[in-house]
Amino acid sequence: MSYSITPIATVHSPYKQKFGIARQPGLVPAAEICIELSPEFTADSVRGLEDFDYVWISFIFHAVLDEGWAQMVRPPRLGGKQKMGVFATRSPHRPNHLGLSLLKLERIETGKPVRIYCSGADLLDGTPVVDIKPYIPFVESKPDASSGFVSGKPEELSVVWAESTLAEHLSTEEKHLIEQSIAQDPRPAYQDIPERIYVMNIADYEVQFRIENKCATVIKLSKI
Fold it and tell me: What are the residue boundaries of the TsaA-like domain, all occurrences included (predicted)?
């Protein structure tokens, strides 16, 4: 038996490309997204949702649909050197390319269309959303559960700005978004090339930076 899934909403995100997106939700608190529901959904569809602090977002990894999937993948947390079964990872290269993120619910606009704003996001701009559910702590929080090969929050990079970047022209929110995203070290796990310049398209900016000895230096900031 086959099934089809129709997206119910579209994500508007500051992340305009796959490179630089936080690898897990909640790691970049400043990453706020807008989930815009399709026209057939009215304010009735979100009645009561405003009383919850967090929501589960089910979505499609649309940017990798043509890349297929594999039985085993190389998780970044293992340095990209060791393989694990795809179902033991959060890899986007899955048989059905479905993702699940727990995001902080910030606010809801019940106009036409209905818009749901969440923070701590790890979603690419244009991501199709297929379901939204409230997070219920007393049944879903398991703080003592084993987490396999994923132990603790990953170590973050320090981030500094070269004087030539004119970072003072950024808003506080924009600066936090860029710094928190780079601090997650978006490089492939196997890559450590201090002289390499990385480019991230985020919000309305193209950001260029280098990484050396656990420190990222932003060297250029350009308005897109």
Answer: 5-144
